[in-house]
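FOLDING PROBLEM:
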Amino acid sequence: MTILLDFRRGAWLAAAAFLALSSSSCAERSSTMKTTQPEQHRPTVKAPAGTVEGRRQGDLRVFKGIPYALPPVGPARWLPPKPLPPWQGVKETSEFGPACVQPTVRAVSIYGEDLGVTSEDCLTLNVWAPADAHDAAVFVWIHGGALRSGSSKESFYDGARLAAQGIVVVSINYRLGIFGYLAHPGLSAESPLGVSGNYGLLDQIEALRWVQRNIHAFGGDPSKVTIAGESAGALSVMYLMAAPDARGLFSKAISQSAYMISTPELKQRKFGEFAAEEIGSYVGAQLHAPDVGALRAMGAQALADAAAAINYAPFGTIDGRVLPRQLVDVFDSGEQAPVPLLAGFNSGEIRSLRVLAPPVPATTVEYERVIRERYRDLADEFLRHYPSANLSESILATTRDALYGWTAERLVKKQTALGQKAFLYLFDHGYPEADAAGLHAFHASELPFVFGTLDTVPPRWPKIPATAQERKLSEAIIGYWSSFARTGTPHAANEPEWSAYGSSSTYMDFTDVPRPSQHLLAGMYELQEEVVCRRRKSADQAWNWNVGLASPILPAREDSCR
């Protein structure tokens, strides 16, 4: 049997989102233990995990590279994380820990940033806390990178501006790629639960448990934890909302550019996907590793690069335990975490991820012919939303809406149905250098505005003007995000009221300024929901980027999809 790992939806996200984040050869992390009295100007915190020494940054105390679990190296590779025993003495935490091992980058993109050395010993987190914090709300950030790259040390993610709003900010590392998400029959056989995969997600859960045990010592309130992330970080937020083991570890959630796509199931083929264990066996065979022991014997960087070379794409595994069911089923049944939610997406998501969109056809006639063939009775409605009059824009919008727009609105609809406050946004802000490059409101372009890091973006990122207008928009977004973490309602001083989605389908449109509006892309959600419903009912089609010109012929309408 041959399995192509760019199967159906394959490595599309692995090859796209945050494509060019730098990585280097595996290197062990060194941490300095201090047993002498720390210097008086350096803040120390005595937490249940142990005493840490950080640095002052204005009115903030900053601690970087705090380990939250035992290193998952050697025989511990592909095991659930284990809590780190309390350490003795004072641990110096003034530098970020290494990024987790990830594939060596062979290309460049606007997302590229030098992350320095990488290591399997990478399960660390960082804390920005106001000096006078007491029972403050906690904001836990999960980085993006297609679950295969990235790090909490990326320049966007400096937590100082958010923490200056009176909240405690935490950012975390978690295992990536083949180390974080490989399912394999041999690993399932080792597990007392008979499952494998989801190790990166289990790392995130362990980090949240660390926050519950320790964040009070930093001035945070463990009952007021907001999980937040963008792209793969937002996918992780949905996984955490669906995971029984994460229940009670957070009280609010923020999801930026999430994608509620189908994902492999552990032991059976379904929705056009190979079984996750089947994929793992194929990976082992391609890497000439007959068993798990042989995979564990491989060098970390060589393994990461070899897996990338055969297009291994990391995703969560539906194993019936860590992730009980497909995300769409969990949210349809109201089994997700019943917490307030803030969710949205960017108008130009695919402008920087064009690998996710099919090529533009030569003629409008060909475009309409293919759409009518693939979408059958839905073709007229599809062409109303994505007309042939502007093919390139329609193709970009098709993929954007199927992945990000539909997901964002689905999340707020499902939380509203649970009786929770849910807030929807569209980030539609452009600025000269981005717009000139055809990157208006591109994927992740909201991140510098959320963190107030307008002047510390990656080297090839379109430069953001140092103007009062850009700073004001960033201040508004920081205000909305931080107040949501504190109260569950987004509010920014001297800015418009952001009402919950509710029955009026309200959302916030971030253009040059925040503008409240209603009925985002009216009819978009209903069309995408119908497409996904039919694919779910047929059980033999995935739902992800395979839309528009890339769509298979849709199944016939089911009565239950009306």
Remarks:
- Residues 1-38 have pLDDT under 50 and may be disordered.
- The longest strand covers residues 220-230.
